User: Fold this.
Amino acid sequence: MATGSHLTIELNQDVEAKLLELSAATDRSQAELANVALMSYLDRELKTVDGIRRGLADIKSGDLVDHDKAMDELDAVIEAAEAARL
Assistant:
C-alpha cells in the first residue's frame, strides 16, 4: 500500500474486534482494511452530497418533475424489475 499521511482514531471495542478478526482471516493489515473501508464510506457519502447538490441546482433552475409523473415512472421501473425476477 502506498504511504500517505497518518490519522489516529479511537475505535470502540466492537469495531476493533471486527477489524482484528478480519485482518487475521484475510492476512491483510488493519491499516489496509481501514483504508479500504474509509475509502468506500467516503466515496458513498460524496456521491450522496453530489446528488443533493445536483438536486438543489435543479430546484434553483426550475428543472422539476411533477410528483405524480415521477411516481408513475418509479412504479413502472419497480414493476419491470419484479417481472424480470419471475
About this structure: The chain has one domain: 13-85. The radius of gyration is 21 Å.
